[in-house]
Amino acid sequence: MKANKIVILLLFFVQISFSQTIIGKWKTIDDETGKEKAIIEIFEKNGKYYGKIIEILEQEHRFRKCELCQGEDKNKPILGLVIIKSIQKNGAIFDGGKITDPKNGKTYNCKISFDGNNKLIVRGYIGISLFGRSQTWVRDK
């Protein structure tokens, strides 16, 4: 009986630890319109996290290029673009990297935190986090 309780408790903690990962596919929700915009796949590489646009949900934007982006991303197709770069886990949040908004081509500091197990709050900002905006991303099933 005692062994069963320990196994159940361990399974509970394993489930929590796996569900609290940003790795996976996330559906972006526009903070201004509330519309679903894209699917981003977040992956880990060399201890840092990156996010790539793998699907564009608005049909009229599927073949657009990032004309306003700077540097190596300029004029690249938005589909396949890595928009989150070099985020690191820092306690309960992920920060220290950058996020690019393909709509305006600007790159911002980025901070990501969980809102429950299946929602992320993704904040892009300039300077300090107070000066920015946040989007909710929902885990894509």
UniProtKB/TrEMBL annotation:
Residue ranges annotated for the DUF2147 domain, each copy included: 24-139
InterPro entries linked to this entry: DUF2147
UniProt superkingdom: Bacteria
Protein's name in the database: Uncharacterized protein (DUF2147 family)
